[in-house]
Every structure is written in structure tokens, then in C-alpha cells.
Amino acid sequence: MRISTINKIFLFICMFGLTSCAVIFENNYDVMARQALFKLMKAQENYRIEHDKYASKLVQLSSHGLKYNTGIVYIEIHSASKDEYRAISLPAESSTARVFIYETSKGGYYEADEVEVSKYVLGALNFIRSEKAKQKTNTLLFSILLGSLVILGFRFVSRYKGEGNNNALISYFISLPPLGWAVAALNHLSNDVIFSSKILTLSWVAIALSLSCVLITIRWLKNKKTLSSPTPIIGLAGCSLFISLISLGSMAYTLIKYYPT
């Protein structure tokens, strides 16, 4: 492996970090509320074809495919006319302060911002915001830690690249994305979060990368004469093994506890 491979791994870490910015961990009730709104949108179009106007009451859409769990999801049609309508959907007991809206005059479907959310989520809004702030703080602190580990890795690259040390350096960088995903999963997964195919795919990718890191590091330690290797590189290899084993354990824990059976 050439040392330029480390640059590719660094780009992968950046892409992995950008992926984590997307909405991956979604509350099951939020998903149900959004799907219910999509059903309403489809039912409204069917209703308009028959009556040349949009329905102003939910009961008018019951025969046009609008079915949802009324005990979990709250839907309301705020206004409706011949050419446009506005409707909202959110969990009846929201724990995430997410509100989904369709408004023809605003271009269709969108998710409400914090200002608009405050109109619909009242009692628990401050508590929900404080919980989100804690999660953001945890994410920020770990991002700083992960960034420090990346910088540390490049310091090792600048000092010890070549001389048979490249595999140890590469395995260190390979261990970082699974660590990031493991911490994100532990921080966000719960019984109320839907275990989507995206989460499952990223978990298996993290497991594969961790196993690759373990194999590369063990093979390097076997082939390398420990006595002739710089002590910091031996320590870095041990760090890579430790990180990979921790990531594997975390992924195994989340799969066993949260994967739907």
C-alpha cells in the first residue's frame, strides 16, 4: 500500500462525516406522521379530480385512501380551496418537535422550522430543545476529538511514513470512521428510533472496516520486527486495535439491542 492511500482514507472520513449530517436517525412516530401527510397529499389530488376542489375536512378523504393511526398521528387541514390547501402532520405526542407541512402557496411539502414548530408543539418544546442541545453538544465534542485523532494520525504520517510502517498508519485511519459511527449510533439510537436500511448498511460497513483494521494491524505486527520498530508506531498499532475492538463491540451491541426481529 502506498502512503497516498491515506489521503483517500482521509477523504472517506470527510465523506463519512458529511453523511452523518443527514437525517439518519428518525423517530418512528415522525416517520409515521410524514407518511400520513404523504397519504393526505395523494388523497387530496384524487379528491380534486372528482370534485374540482380540495377537501377541507379529513372525513372527506376517508374514501380516497387516507388511513392513519389517529392515536399516534395528528393531522389537520388548515385551509382548502379550489386551487390550494394547507395541512400539517405531527406525532400526537411529539418527542422531537418535528412538524411536516404541505402548503400549495409555498411550493408543496416542507418541514417546519423552529419558529413555526413553536405554534404546534407547546408543552414539551423547551424540554425537547434542551435534549437536542445535549445531543448537539455531544456530537460537537466528539467531532473535536475525532478531528484531533485525524491530526495526530497525520503527524505520525509525517514522521514515520515508509520503512514498512505504511500499513500500520493506514490501519489507524481505517479505524476512525467506524469509531465515529459507533459513537453516533450509541448517542442517537433508542427503541423509538426506526432502524432503517441506511443505519443497517452503515453499521455493516463500520463492522467490515473494523475487521479490516484488525486484520491489517495483526498482519503488520506479525511481519514487522517489534524490536526494530519505533515505539510510537507500535503504540499506534495498539491504539488501532483497541479502537477497532471497541467499535466492533459497540456495533454488535446496537445490532443485538435495536435490530428489529
Describe the protein in words.
The chain is of the alpha+beta class. 61% of the residues lie in helices and 9% in strands. The chain has seven helices and four strands. The chain has helices at 4-19, 28-51, 114-117, 125-160, 166-188, 197-223, 231-258, and strands at residues 73-80, 85-91, 100-103, 108-111. A four-stranded antiparallel β-sheet has the order 1-2-3-4, with helices on one face. Strand 2 and strand 3 form a beta hairpin. The relative contact order is 0.12.
Number of helices: 7
Average predicted confidence as pLDDT? 85
Q: Level of helix content?
A: 55-70%
As for the number of domains, it is 2
Largest beta-sheet details:
4 strands, antiparallel
How would you write the strand order of the largest sheet? 1-2-3-4
Return residue spans where pLDDT drops below 50 for at least 5 consecutive residues: 18-22
Distance between the termini: 41 Å
Cα-atom radius of gyration: 25 Å
Q: Features of this protein?
A:
single chain; 261 residues; alpha+beta; 2 domains; four-stranded antiparallel β-sheet
Task: Give a brief rundown of this model.
The protein has 261 residues and is of the alpha+beta class. The chain has 7 helices and 4 strands, in the order H-H-E-E-E-E-H-H-H-H-H. The protein has 2 domains: 4-26 and 126-258, no CATH class; 28-124, no CATH class.
What topology emerges from the helices and strands here?
Blueprint: H1 4-19, H2 28-51, E1 73-80, E2 85-91, E3 100-103, E4 108-111, H3 114-117, H4 125-160, H5 166-188, H6 197-223, H7 231-258
Antiparallel strand pairs: 1-2, 2-3, 3-4
